Structure formats: C-alpha cells, structure tokens
Amino acid sequence: MTDTLQAIARALSTDVQTLGTISHNVANMNTPGYRGVRAVPEFSQQALLRTSLDQTDGSVMQTARKLDLALQGPGFFVVEREGEPLLVRSGAFRVDAQGQLVTANGDVVRGPNAPIGTDLDALRVDADGALWNGTQSLGQLELITVADAGALRPAGGGAYRYEGEQEPWSGQVIQGALEAANIDAAGETIRLMETTRHAESVQRAISIYDKAMDTGINRLGDN
Predict the structure, then answer these.
(1) Which of 33, 59, 81, 167 is the most buried (most CB within 10 A)?
(2) Dihedral Cα 99, 104, 110, 115, nearest 10 deg
(3) What are phi and psi of 183, to 5 degrees?
(4) Which residues make beta-bridge pairs with 87?
(5) Cα-Cα end-to-end distance for the chain
(6) Could you say which DSSP state residue 66 is in?
C-alpha cells in the first residue's frame, strides 16, 4: 500500500472510531451516571486513537428516593461482581433479598457492614459516604478516584475495570438524587457534523486518488 493510501486509510479509520464514540454517547444520554467517551490521539502506540472518559460532573436530578445516590466530583462507587471489584458512577441502588445494597445490575456495593434492610425511613447517607440507620452506623461506602481515566475499561452494566493508581476521594455524596449523563447534546451534534464533513473530504480524496491512478495506468498502456 502506498504512503498516500495509508494516510487516507488512517484518516478514515479515525473518523469511524470518532463516530462510534459519538453514537455511544448519544445512545446513553438518558442513562444516569453515564460518562461521556472521547476519542483522543494515541501517539505512543500503533493505534491512532484511544478512548477516554469525560470526568466532568453531570447535572443532579432530585428523586427523593432513599437509595438513589449522586456523586459530585471525580470518583466512583466500588462494587463487587463475582468477587471482582469494579467501579460504577451511577448510584441507582436497591436492596436485594439478602438485605445487601446492590446496583440495578445486581453488583454488590462495597462498604456497608450490616444489612440495609427494607425499612428505609431512617436510612441516611452523609456527604462523605457514611451510612446510618437512625443512630446505628451501617458502614462507609467505598469510594475512590482514579488517577488515569484512560485506564478504565468497560465491564458491562455501567461498570468499569481499573488497575491503575488511585487518588484520595474528595467528592460529595448526595442522597435522594441521581447524576444525569454528562453528555452535552449540542456538543455531540457539532462533533458529529465536523467528523462527518471530514469523512466526506476523505472520501473525495479517495475518489481523486483512484482517478489519478486509473489515468496513470491507462497512459502506461498507451506506451
């Protein structure tokens, strides 16, 4: 493959990857706690782009539900799935049949040292993640901040795997609320328009190159 074709192929490949992230973001605009995905240049490896999570806060939606917890500031809830620790941002929790605090996907929320129970009238969650049933402590939610958002890997069900460095958590837990997806519809629309136009330009470049090659080959035949 010539250098020209390689350059065109790389440009088209990055456009396709970028369109994929935009499509994923738009599809999850109404998913509580969803973190927007960005395609960013990767200079250290063969891959042209890598994906990274947008760590900015989404807006807070009041629900008045005791088990809805919104995070503000960088950080994640730590949950457990089949013994594996995972990170989630959405705090749309529920209590399972064993009285455990779990995600909508059934992952167990780490931190509570006692069953939450079904009587939620006296359940209180402080801004630092401390859980209370009246004056009885139920433990402390496990919350962490990741040092490298680019190292987060989707694990399904809105959860992420992370094996990088951690930083002290300094955010805030808001009980009775959920964090909306941090997706800006207008911003995604602009990115879609820009990427589509670029992809169209690349397609025109391919067409021009193809015609030039065709003309060159025909002239060789004339000789």
Answers:
(1) 33
(2) -10
(3) -105, 130
(4) 78, 160
(5) 25
(6) T
